[in-house]
Design brief:
Blueprint: H1 8-16, E1 31-35, H2 40-52, E2 56-60, E3 69-73, H3 78-88, E4 92-96, H4 99-116, H5 127-140, E5 144-151, E6 157-163, E7 171-176, H6 184-198, H7 202-210, E8 212-216, H8 221-229, E9 240-241, E10 245-246, H9 281-292, E11 297-307, E12 309-312, H10 324-342, E13 347-350, H11 351-354, H12 362-370, E14 374-383, H13 397-417
Parallel strand pairs: 7-8, 7-11, 11-14, 12-13
Antiparallel strand pairs: 1-3, 1-4, 2-3, 5-6, 6-8, 9-10, 12-14
Helix pairs in contact: 6-13, 10-13
Length: 427
């Protein structure tokens, strides 16, 4: 679909990441709709719109008839969008009339918190604040070692820490923020890290002291900074490509069955897998760091949002992994544990079947290339019925962290029962 003249500047800014001086992408009067296709022709229309329109942002995308789509619609595209749905007999439910309102409220809270100078878990923080906090932990705790897992296109550090109380522990690698707009992900990684150092709960102390932890809150630092400075809903990296296009999806860019399923070859797409595997310096350098830990890490956990899912390999095929039954049983116990504190319900399953086909993901790469057989992706709060999943109110950071840590204890206990950490040769 073409762009109207009145909306062209906004649409280009949103799709291509172009900035003009100090301009910031805004979503004033952008509406959010929930759409559920009831036929294959309706599903095709929605997928066509996703690929062709630069003025629609698909916050949540289904792949099957009956699956839910949450779609942000630019004001100038509203008439075309609603007419297209009407002509195909698709019913849409209006969830929000002004996306910018939630973003403004979030920003106001962050400014007030930053003025007070505290780092806690009642708000979201910018990259420099997170990195400064990691530096502080390394100075404060003997068990904490600063790590650089790689760097970004704009030469920002992929900064993390190792937490180790003794030698010989199996290792757990935790990655957050690979999709820039999913702010609850870095916040949850930071919360868990803090608890590993400060909690007095016996179960938390057990996993803290009997595993080595490699913790990276934000592995897409350029994208994360961009969400704070320019466009709150940015997802990808910031690598410039031809035609004024920026970024690839860093969770479709890993060199394991790259570009086979659930990825786009269009640079403008939010699921653009890049021109080739590991084209993004972020995934390339981070993968080299993770590969250097081969034999030292026995579990790989990636935090995303949203939809309340616990996923495991594979994403490129419906065929199951050799230890599918174990991964499935561990996931069932894990989501049961997660629900106990606040009643938060998760679904679980292999990526291909439980959410949608998606190849080139970090978790699949860790499983398939490094032989890390305990590999999971969390899709954190909120559930799939929410429209503002990427602008989750900060009051939910602590509850999300608490229930996720509860579940992580169970995940490690259940995988330990099944002998996954007995052959820790290089630990």
């Amino acid at each position: 679909m073409g762009l109207s003249v009145a909306g062209s500047v906004v649409a280009i800014c949103l799709c291509f990441g172009v900035t003009y001086g100090s301009e910031v992408a805004r979503y004033d009067n952008y509406r959010v709709y929930e759409v559920i296709p009831t036929s294959s022709s309706q599903l095709k229309l929605l997928n066509d719109l996703k690929q062709s329109s630069d003025s629609l942002i698909f916050l949540e995308s289904g792949t099957n008839v009956g699956a839910k789509f949450n779609i942000v619609v630019a004001p100038h595209k509203l008439a075309d969008f609603t007419e297209a749905l009407h002509n195909e007999g698709i019913r849409a439910r209006l969830l929000e009339t002004n996306m910018q309102k939630s973003i403004d409220e979030e920003k106001q809270r962050m400014v007030a918190k930053r003025a007070r100078g505290a780092f806690d878990f009642n708000n979201y923080y910018e990259l420099e604040d997170i990195h400064a906090w990691l530096d502080k932990l390394a100075n404060q705790y003997d068990q904490v070692e600063l790590l650089e897992g790689g760097h970004s296109y704009e030469n920002r550090s992929i900064k993390g820490v190792k937490v180790s109380y003794k030698s010989g522990n199996p290792g757990v690698f935790i990655e957050g923020g690979i999709h820039a707009r999913e702010w609850i992900s870095p916040a949850t990684v930071a919360y868990i890290l803090n608890e590993l150092l400060t909690s007095t709960d016996p179960k938390v102390r057990n996993i803290a002291e009997n595993y080595d932890w490699y913790m990276f809150p934000s592995v897409n630092p350029d994208g994360y900074v961009y969400t704070h400075k320019k466009d709150r809903l940015w997802r990808k990296t910031r690598t410039p490509y031809s035609g004024g296009c920026f970024g690839a999806d860093p969770n479709r860019n890993w060199d394991f069955h790259w570009a086979e399923q659930g990825t786009s070859s269009r640079c403008q797409s939010e699921t653009y897998g890049g021109p080739y595997a590991f084209s993004e310096v972020e995934t390339k350098t981070l993968s080299e760091f993770v590969a250097s830990l081969k034999g030292k890490i026995q579990a790989y956990i990636s935090f995303h949002s949203y939809s309340q899912l616990l996923l495991f390999p594979y994403g490129h095929t419906h065929e199951h992994t050799p230890n599918h039954n174990d991964l499935d049983e561990i996931a069932k116990a894990t989501v049961t544990s997660l629900a106990k504190r606040y009643g938060t319900k998760y679904k679980y399953g292999n990526i291909y079947d439980a959410i949608y086909p998606a190849s080139g993901a970090s978790v699949d790469w860790a499983y398939g290339t490094l032989d890390v057989k305990i590999a999971y992706t969390y899709e954190l709060r909120p559930g799939s019925g929410s429209w503002n999943g990427f602008v989750l109110p900060p009051k939910q950071i602590v509850p999300t962290g608490e229930e996720t840590l509860d579940s992580l204890v169970t995940l490690l206990e259940e995988s330990q029962k099944r002998g996954y950490y007995e052959n820790c040769k290089d630990c």
